[in-house]
Amino acid sequence: MTATVPGPDGRPRCFWCSNIPEFFPYHDHEWGFPVDDDVRLFEKVCLESFQSGLSWRTILAKRENFRAAFAGFDFNRVADFDASDITRLLADQGIVRHRGKIEATINNARRAREMVQHEGSLAAFFWRFEPDSKDLPEPQTATTSKESVALSKDLKKRGWKFVGPTTVYAFMQAMGLINDHAEGCVYREVVEQARQQFKRPV
């Protein structure tokens, strides 16, 4: 059984929540619940890209600043960002000021806009890579999978950047394409019920 830690109510949560108290609300209300909203999916891809080499604690603490800086992660708006926006973002102390990741986010917004035109929605595309739950490893023991490798490869083929297999796997964990809550975590069953009721986008 994967290690757990008592939550604020005394019930067990995934052990990684013990890192900081702010992780508990994120864990209880967001992480692993299935998402079909294109803006939320795009936001998560971007934030996972920004996290590369950093901690999720850093990104979560700055998430509202990121949202303000990147037009709420409305990819149709971000796709129109230009050189002046890059200059503005590089001067924004509220976000991670990494030129490559900033430029990748703008590029990925343009690729997202193209994807919606070709696929109907980001959700329809991403959920094609949902693995069979019977093939999943023990919770929180993997950082990549054959599905995350395939998704990463497909995104890169379409011109997306900063979307390696590990980044994509973390995205899949968070957006509910897999239920990676620890065995013994009280939210594992809650998330599983949400996944069972979730209507997969097509």
UniProtKB/TrEMBL annotation:
<dbReference type="InterPro" id="IPR005019">
    <property type="entry name" value="Adenine_glyco"/>
</dbReference>
<keyword id="KW-0479">Metal-binding</keyword>
<feature type="binding site">
    <location>
        <position position="181"/>
    </location>
    <ligand>
        <name>Zn(2+)</name>
    </ligand>
</feature>
<keyword id="KW-0862">Zinc</keyword>
<dbReference type="GO" id="GO:0006284">
    <property type="term" value="P:base-excision repair"/>
</dbReference>
<dbReference type="InterPro" id="IPR052891">
    <property type="entry name" value="DNA-3mA_glycosylase"/>
</dbReference>
<dbReference type="GO" id="GO:0008725">
    <property type="term" value="F:DNA-3-methyladenine glycosylase activity"/>
</dbReference>
<feature type="binding site">
    <location>
        <position position="14"/>
    </location>
    <ligand>
        <name>Zn(2+)</name>
    </ligand>
</feature>
<feature type="binding site">
    <location>
        <position position="185"/>
    </location>
    <ligand>
        <name>Zn(2+)</name>
    </ligand>
</feature>
<dbReference type="GO" id="GO:0046872">
    <property type="term" value="F:metal ion binding"/>
</dbReference>
<dbReference type="InterPro" id="IPR011257">
    <property type="entry name" value="DNA_glycosylase"/>
</dbReference>
<feature type="binding site">
    <location>
        <position position="27"/>
    </location>
    <ligand>
        <name>Zn(2+)</name>
    </ligand>
</feature>
<protein>
    <submittedName>
        <fullName>DNA-3-methyladenine glycosylase I</fullName>
    </submittedName>
</protein>
<dbReference type="Pfam" id="PF03352">
    <property type="entry name" value="Adenine_glyco"/>
</dbReference>
